[in-house]
Fold these 3 entries.
Entry 1:
Amino acid sequence: MAPTRQTLFAATLCSGLGLLLASHLWAWDGVVEKQTFAIDSFTTQGGETIPDVTVGWEAYGELNDARDNVILITHFFSGTSHAAGRYDPDDELAGYWNAIIGPGKPLDTDEYYIISSDTLVNLNAFDPNVTTTGPASINPDTGEPWGMDFPVVTIRDFVEVQRELLESQGIESLHAVMGASMGALQAIEWASAYPDWVERLIPVIGSGVANPWLLATLSAWAAPIRLDANWNEGNYYDGEPPTDGLKEALKLVTLNANHWQWANDTFNRDWADEDRDPAKDINARYAIEQTLDDIAAARAEVSDANHFLYLVQANQTFMAGHGDSLEAGLAAIEAPTLMLYSEKDLIFPPEGVRRTAELIEADSTDVTLETLEGNRGHLDGVLSIDQASDTLREFLQ
Amino acid sequence: MAPTRQTLFAATLCSGLGLLLASHLWAWDGVVEKQTFAIDSFTTQGGETIPDVTVGWEAYGELNDARDNVILITHFFSGTSHAAGRYDPDDELAGYWNAIIGPGKPLDTDEYYIISSDTLVNLNAFDPNVTTTGPASINPDTGEPWGMDFPVVTIRDFVEVQRELLESQGIESLHAVMGASMGALQAIEWASAYPDWVERLIPVIGSGVANPWLLATLSAWAAPIRLDANWNEGNYYDGEPPTDGLKEALKLVTLNANHWQWANDTFNRDWADEDRDPAKDINARYAIEQTLDDIAAARAEVSDANHFLYLVQANQTFMAGHGDSLEAGLAAIEAPTLMLYSEKDLIFPPEGVRRTAELIEADSTDVTLETLEGNRGHLDGVLSIDQASDTLREFLQ
């Protein structure tokens, strides 16, 4: 968290960046400290009260004295607050948007205070770097995990927790809010609900409403969890969790978040086990199946099945402004908007992105649409974000 | 089955078609008789023996004396032999390609003998109009259902059963073989394995190999069945079948076989139950979820879960020619080929269709590629086939 003082020597090593860095006395060193933020009692948009809400957060760069250099990053379905940097310098992987967040990068930590928090019902409930409140949390009224008694929470509830976090730091405006996928929904909701806060809006691979295709896709994701006998209506915290169902759910997420070009470019028809021919053994399978299972199994280890179901619901219920009219919800947005998307996106198809842009633009709000290329489709919004570096740099100025 | 004599009066009612009809003494009346074909002992490509194989079949039009006016129709994953007509004149629905099969239609029953059979391991094992042999059939050696002891069967095995059926009728050549999706795989396999039989090849919404994307998609379809505790490693015939898992599997088929445009054009964000708001009730859902569930539940009633798994395997193992090389498998095809496909197909993406066309064409075999338009994607190959009527008529002459 704390910026590290750089020597002039280190700064000048950075050739073209030297002068820029030298004008600051410090630069963020890429090491992130995860912190927590607590709310004694949180009331959901649905009118339910949740005591002892705690979420994790992290920030890159320094909050200026005017507290007006804030960029809020909102995370995707299976994501966390970890958008950039490393918790430990030896961490193999940096945060998911590390390509665009850092000293001299488009989201320049020398200039901006970039903050991100774990949502409520964060999927990665058992990741030691994640703090969230959801069905796996203890309900202080019973001393037991909430399970399916946890109130339904919405994208707007995620926004409200973020607002309280920001206000706790004396922040009352956002230079920008930017997020991918479910993060785009939060960013759009921010700009719609709090137009006075949000100066720039950057929804990436997301649109203003969960359209019927997304409702059905999310429904399919949730199904394997409810099918797993271990799920037991959400009461599994003192027994075996529904790991098999959760793995299948996570496998669908991986498959849908990618494009068929990725699968066909990356994999072949190899068998998972070279001694077991799927044409002769009904339980034999292909390497791509095994790989997708292995990815899902690794993710399942730190994920909670009930949290998954609550995230599905939060995404399904999303419509900007949460009123009766998408048009009104998007017309409420006043911030200049940059929408980044993929024409190959199978979760938030381009038609919905363009419709969202049209409705934001309808009352003359500036909207820029830009595509991300790649063979990942939806995931290019996370993995190929550096393509938009110049656009982002310019848009943020 | 039996052609009905038409009066000259009826024929002349058909204006432009009058002369054509009058030149025949009969026309197929659209009523279909389902028949069965039995093989005492069938040996799979994998070298396993299945006694007492029986499949259903039906035909439209009359076999000519030269037995050279045959068009074989091969069915899709969830399909049956019922490509045209009605089993009973009062049936609400006709066969799936009724739009192009009939008197005066592109697949003209006044000219061709059009035959179609249920595959091995047909999904609709409990449909009274379907006859198939698979895991739900009794293994004569044990007197019990085969379950997962049934041998793995492949697309080539489906072709071999069809060949025996045709030979039983004295047929040794095909004016054309045409099929959609899994039917396209069978058609391609026919033309690759028996180039001397096949005079014209018409693969619709299918390609020459199950590419990695399809392997993964089929894997996702199978997963809910194996997750259902009632599946019990395939031993459920004397207890509760894994209906919930089968329903979810069938739901994924419906979703993947359509395009997002269909979902967004057809459905809205209505709740399934107007009194239960998904933003307040974690078990509440949207109308589109309920509709997809209802469709799946209706299909599950006549479907068998193990048959579903065997069909998944048959599709996954498919590569034309079943050798080591797709190039060789497709080069073996000599029949002029008409490939109909959708640019929006999410099961057999257009890239794979075009690649198949290139490989068939590589040794100068004629290939025509034509797209089907619509908002269904893959399913436009079934539902929008009439768009290709003129092309089909010309190609078959």
Entry 2:
Amino acid sequence: MKALILLADGFEDLQLFAPWYRLREENVRITIATPWGQEATGSHGYVVEADSPIAEINPNEYDLLVIPGGQAPARLRLREDAVGIARTFLEDGRRVAAIDHGVQLLISAGGLDSRKVTCHPSIRDDVRFAGANYRDEAVVVDGSLLTGRGNEDLPQFCRSLVAGLAVRA
Amino acid sequence: MKALILLADGFEDLQLFAPWYRLREENVRITIATPWGQEATGSHGYVVEADSPIAEINPNEYDLLVIPGGQAPARLRLREDAVGIARTFLEDGRRVAAIDHGVQLLISAGGLDSRKVTCHPSIRDDVRFAGANYRDEAVVVDGSLLTGRGNEDLPQFCRSLVAGLAVRA
Amino acid sequence: MKALILLADGFEDLQLFAPWYRLREENVRITIATPWGQEATGSHGYVVEADSPIAEINPNEYDLLVIPGGQAPARLRLREDAVGIARTFLEDGRRVAAIDHGVQLLISAGGLDSRKVTCHPSIRDDVRFAGANYRDEAVVVDGSLLTGRGNEDLPQFCRSLVAGLAVRA
Amino acid sequence: MKALILLADGFEDLQLFAPWYRLREENVRITIATPWGQEATGSHGYVVEADSPIAEINPNEYDLLVIPGGQAPARLRLREDAVGIARTFLEDGRRVAAIDHGVQLLISAGGLDSRKVTCHPSIRDDVRFAGANYRDEAVVVDGSLLTGRGNEDLPQFCRSLVAGLAVRA
Amino acid sequence: MKALILLADGFEDLQLFAPWYRLREENVRITIATPWGQEATGSHGYVVEADSPIAEINPNEYDLLVIPGGQAPARLRLREDAVGIARTFLEDGRRVAAIDHGVQLLISAGGLDSRKVTCHPSIRDDVRFAGANYRDEAVVVDGSLLTGRGNEDLPQFCRSLVAGLAVRA
Amino acid sequence: MKALILLADGFEDLQLFAPWYRLREENVRITIATPWGQEATGSHGYVVEADSPIAEINPNEYDLLVIPGGQAPARLRLREDAVGIARTFLEDGRRVAAIDHGVQLLISAGGLDSRKVTCHPSIRDDVRFAGANYRDEAVVVDGSLLTGRGNEDLPQFCRSLVAGLAVRA
């Protein structure tokens, strides 16, 4: 099992660490990719090393895509390489887990039409215009797509994330 | 001539001060409204007193609505009163000037369909899904709707803002 | 299953959130206690509400004591009520999980003699003088006592924490 | 029409941006000069690129000198090149616009004797000892010398600044 | 022996603590006065309790006036009570010790004419216009007036401060 | 008379400057050593240049060792070279002055057995386990060992520090 995390400066720290550490606890191998392979700084100041530039990522090598929220997705959605990776995962029906503003990258990837989705409330209107069925819930599972609302929902988000691993095994 | 500025914490400071001071230079009377009438703090630390809570604003008393960007619009678009004011201005064809993320409030107000619009690049996909005709330009004027891209475009944004005043006189 | 977390200002944020959210994922009921029942602010700025002042805690109602690190334990070890709670857990042989500087509270509680322990390297000499058998390892389990070294070891710390829950069930 | 802005770290951000953007709105060509041509950081964190080191500036190429306030003028008045430029403008009777602590540079240039001047209140005694006729007013125009008191007076300062452009044309 | 320290927000921390602690070492009794008797915060974040509002100070009860620098003197020189205290000390020929921007308060008090003085270089021109004989030296002693240049000169400033105590004994 | 100050990032600023400037006032020659000879930043932001890397220090060339507190000693006690220097001073009976958390380095050096010591209250239990006789006093002098409790005690700490110089002369 291999997971890919897309990251950039301004990520919401807990939304990286909670799923990252949870997946490591399950022995999932994880690659963190940032725009130029440089380290990324969270909105609360945690600094994380990257394993790879996004441009060098082959999405077919990964079973799971994780997109933390905060201000990082606003940076990532401006990059064709990051948007393309999210699109590939969505189109192939492979597992995607996005939380909070992480859903912004999925909007840009154009794959939310008719999908049930939750996200940070401040982007709920954007999600609706993108054709998604917005739910104000802690987490929403729609097939291979897992979305979460915010920090307070991380325990449920992680539980669903790990439950999904079992399904794939 | 009376103008209304909708503000909340996290506004991009220059996007408030440049049009605010520019309109004062033209002797436009300005009301700053915040969610509870409390002071608002910009992302660079400037603190601004409010004249009124948003809920007590009657949009019909104003000729012009100004919406600075930054993180304030993400807060404002969660409030029915703020969204309703923007919707009233758009539907009545009265003048609206939004810059950067200020356009997020217009998306939530649901009045961007077929309008020519610019905004911060990170929300261009949201603007497109909302039906708008996105342009990557410094400022875009579409009838009574003026939109601007970002800080660097404030001189042009202010010039268009003031030119519009003359049209209305 | 009920767990108690002792907290004060300056806690290392991830060392609170990772075990807290992990235990919530397992449906453990958790009480966060601070010196006066006030909210606590982590060294990275996260603010957490408390459920109770420490002085009103009855340690016999809890199965597990969790002590995050950072600068909070230096504050807690100055308080007789916090030290007394840790001592009660250690003397009764009930489960204790401390990480990083959290071990400082256990030193003050006087129950580390001949116990195998890991901790933040900067207090390893204090742990040795307190009679403990210091190990430079990610996590150390010595009977009902679980200790962890630092942030990077949180995945293993959480795995041991949850494994211990199963033992008690 | 060409304007020169003298800048250094610690400038009061709005006192740079309001006149700078206002002049750009009027299509004035502007050169920003800093001690070594390096970028300058305002007291609220805005970072501005410089067009030139101060030492390479020929004051005779400019019609207008603008001196924002904050802590930058305290740095500039220690440099002979910056003081010399201000002195040249004052002695030649060319236009000078200074606001807040920007007036400190004019004190050091030695050209305030018998001039009517306003400034930040905390340096009013220095202005008086320098021979100036201090006024506690929003803006003061004395021939080719325009001075302003502080941020709140920027709309009037900019109005006078632009009115002066017309006079010169 | 009694000393008075005039303080306000923005004081340069070391310029308070070095002479304050040094005088305490010599068993001098010290009163710290701030504008409203409130605590004051230094530019590096140290917070100091005040003993008295400035308005309630009777300068005749003190043998020595100490004025730290930083941004506090710019606030103090705007207050008649603070300026009046400095003037009383200077006119009575009682001991005054000012360092860095602390000399700004002496300018406003109008008693520097023909006095030998050092100060922060950025206000040297103000000191000259005030009639003083400026010296670019670590410390300058002119009768009962001791002035210092900056942080690096604090050891010499404190030595002169204490030597002055002996003279008065 | 030569003194050595051991420093690292996170030192409590006043605990460096008060004794450092006080010793300079007495014309003591001082060497500041940091882990790699790099500059060190205090917890309040003061930046200090180093004279030497710790590894190049020969402790026999110094009459006095000064160890400021804050978070620097937690870094220093992890380094064999720093611990070794402290051990040499203690074993040789040469003068050592430590304040606040500076005493942590002495614990690691293993020379506190049966010594009378004060320190920051949060490490008093560590001091006791190390065999020292802990006193909750401003300063404690035990032969050639001077210890201080915290910032508020710096005047007494410096008085004892200087008194000790006289003894050695």
Entry 3:
Amino acid sequence: MLPSVSLLDSFQFSQFTTLLVIYLVAITAEAMSGALAAGRRNMDIFGVSVIAFVTALGGGTIRDMVLGHYPIGWTQHPEYVYLVISAGLLTTVVARYLHRIKRVFLLLDAMGLIAFSLIGCNVALELGYPPVVVVMSGMLTGISGGILRDVLCNQVPVVFRRELYASVSLAVCLLFLGLRTMEVENNLSTLVCFAAGLALRLLALHYHWRLPVFSYQQRWE
Amino acid sequence: MLPSVSLLDSFQFSQFTTLLVIYLVAITAEAMSGALAAGRRNMDIFGVSVIAFVTALGGGTIRDMVLGHYPIGWTQHPEYVYLVISAGLLTTVVARYLHRIKRVFLLLDAMGLIAFSLIGCNVALELGYPPVVVVMSGMLTGISGGILRDVLCNQVPVVFRRELYASVSLAVCLLFLGLRTMEVENNLSTLVCFAAGLALRLLALHYHWRLPVFSYQQRWE
Amino acid sequence: MLPSVSLLDSFQFSQFTTLLVIYLVAITAEAMSGALAAGRRNMDIFGVSVIAFVTALGGGTIRDMVLGHYPIGWTQHPEYVYLVISAGLLTTVVARYLHRIKRVFLLLDAMGLIAFSLIGCNVALELGYPPVVVVMSGMLTGISGGILRDVLCNQVPVVFRRELYASVSLAVCLLFLGLRTMEVENNLSTLVCFAAGLALRLLALHYHWRLPVFSYQQRWE
């Protein structure tokens, strides 16, 4: 039933198998985080599947819709859809053990954030958008899956409050764009972005770095 | 002020007047369910109109945006817009009597869910998308209007928790795709999908069937 | 780094510098209202930037996505992105003084609502959509930024409950369409819409006019 399109052939980073593998790991990790959020709201297994799907592939979907980039990625890759829904459902079985591998999970999540951001930048670059849109496309891909997850679970999105989560995406996008402007070779540039992004995210987690918070409680009436 | 386009001519299922009638009944029923949800949040009549519109036509809008299917359906059918807003406003007048026809309402709602799902499948098929996208397009059309309604009313979407609501959509889409693969004649296939979908939904309502719920309350900190 | 496209050249109302200035004032005021809402939820400065951006430019983005109008406005105007994010961040500094200029703020906000509505109508007209879509495009541009802001801040959208906010947008769109049908000259028509819209909004604020509220608390079980 699958279309005869090789996953590798059509992937926009076909030259790096590494980035594809990281991407697959990333959408799996995001799908699992979505499933856990659905479980906190006592959803049924259908709700779990939807939230897993939206968390993993929603960011890319919104990016493609904003940039007018059709057909949208996952519609050409049914295997991604199966992967994220399977990951979501599997999570309902193994959930009780997941907190034991919390560190692994956070690492995968950070790698996913960086992979998503780089892929988002690349899509906008290939479509010829100006630099500010390239950066926003990277961030949109990186963080809007998590925003959708939180909106559907009826809570204020954590990315607006968590340790430098979105800031890592921004830093990676800016670094990527800077390296590209300096005509650094593509593989090297990806590697540097990954190293810097991971370091920043892990340091932020370890030292609980946060951005300044804006608290405004004044009533106007 | 209406464009001179006949409702029947341009409807994608022009061969079945029946499905069109069911579709019109469906968007009316969905608009009314939206209006009731808005009333539970004490919205003004403008809010009622918006929620009625979004519940009835939002699913098709999201589907068309995801599939890149422009122009979006209702922009070519102003009469749909008038119909759903009128239904929403009328609901504010007759709301007190609606619970007396609860069974009729649930039946119309189930027919709407099935009609939406079949229409969604067909749109994706005509655009040449792979089978998994066809199924997701059907489900997106069937359930995302209700999801939007609940997000705008600031509550966790009920379709993630209600008796087999989304599952009926999934079953109908899979059945439709299966019958099509076996080259069953189109009218017969639609009829079978309706019968099976209605039976499943009504049984689920009667016996309070539910999908297994995933409940996860562990804190990681 | 900015593309060499003059802000004035490509603006769809190039003939009215006035409307462009009002548009810039409007997105600034909307960005500030977004930042204040983010502050009420104790977001970090990244969250403030996102909510400011979404409140100011989200309405136009949704309109363009619904109408299939690509590329989306702000992707061709990086300066708008810088403007709204700067306005959002600046708000965190000056927030404590803003309630003193409440009247100015409400005036700017009303002007923004009208400017957004007129721009939305014009975009749909240029794409050849039927009248009901023109009106909905205007309203979508005028009010959906505020709806997105409230959904992301996890509250029931205030536009569904506030003093004639959305109704002003509707009135302006209908008036604009009516004047156009009567072939009133464009500049005059814009002026009349502004005067009427501002008057209606300010009267509604002063006298606390509200639409009738629909309150429905009946449980069906």
